[in-house]
Amino acid sequence: MDTVRSLLQPLTHSLPAPIRDIGIGLLGDDCYQALVLDVDETNVECIKLAVSKGLGVGIVGASAIVKVPQILNLVRSRSAAGVSFLSYLLETTSYLVSLAYNVRNGFPFSTYGETAFILVQNVVITLLVLHYSGRGAVAALLTAVLTAAGTALFSHPGSTGLGALGVSAEQLGYFQAGAGALGVASKIPQILAILQEGGTGQLSAFTVFNYLLGSLSRIFTTLQEVDDKLILYSFVAGFALNLVLAAQMVYYWKPATPAAKKPKSKGKGVSSTGSAPSTPSKGKGKGKKSSKK
């Protein structure tokens, strides 16, 4: 290891300032010194932190597109079959509260950043489901309600305008407890919809399996970086139900099978057995002259 360290240290000590600043911002001064500058592979706590940060950044990056396949499925098919409106409504509400809770508590962005990206995509999906279900007026009303709720959640009491409805930190804590329950409950309508329809319809497998991996990774990052049981328990419960959804995707998976081809006739008047139908012999039974003896 000493040989590897001697080879790496000239590189790690000459990193460009922007990269060095990002590393310090993610790992902190102590762990950056231990892992990057000293190349100390024995510092287990810093290694765990680095793994957690790496997973967090990966989750946040993937979340920017995690529901794009679902959006494309809806737009392409112009149908909301198999997609539960109630499920997305509950999840959107949960994510809105959780985003406000994390921002106002000053938690590291790498531990919740995907919430912001998924929230935006959820709003789009929810509105599309309403649109393709012929409920455009409800979609407009929902947009107004979410805007007002978001303003109130991100505002402190005593703000002006819509922010006058701002909630206190204590109230937001209660809302977060409820949001965790909503996030878990949001999976149940989707699970039931799949059971009732006997298939996954327009539900995206890419989205379901990415959710499963993301929720599992979030359990680890929360344990490492966020000392908040409310958030941890919500991720554990969410992982369990995401596992059920993933199992349903596998169980109801229907690979495309080519349609059976009908046998083609080889010629005019050929029967299904492949032989030509028999025709009466010319003159048989009619006008037949007996031979003279």
From TrEMBL:
Residues 258-293 are annotated as: Disordered. Keywords: Membrane, Repeat, Transmembrane, Transmembrane helix, Transport. It holds the Pfam family PQ-loop. It is found in: Membrane. It comes from the Eukaryota. The chain crosses the membrane at residues 80-103, 109-130, 137-155, 230-253. The keyword Glycoprotein does not apply. Residues 283-293 have a biased composition (Basic residues). SMART domains: CTNS. It is a multi-pass membrane protein. PANTHER family: MANNOSE-P-DOLICHOL UTILIZATION DEFECT 1 LEC35 -RELATED, MANNOSE-P-DOLICHOL UTILIZATION DEFECT 1 PROTEIN. Belongs to the MPDU1 (TC 2.A.43.3) family. This is Mannose-P-dolichol utilization defect 1 protein homolog. It comes from Sporothrix epigloea.
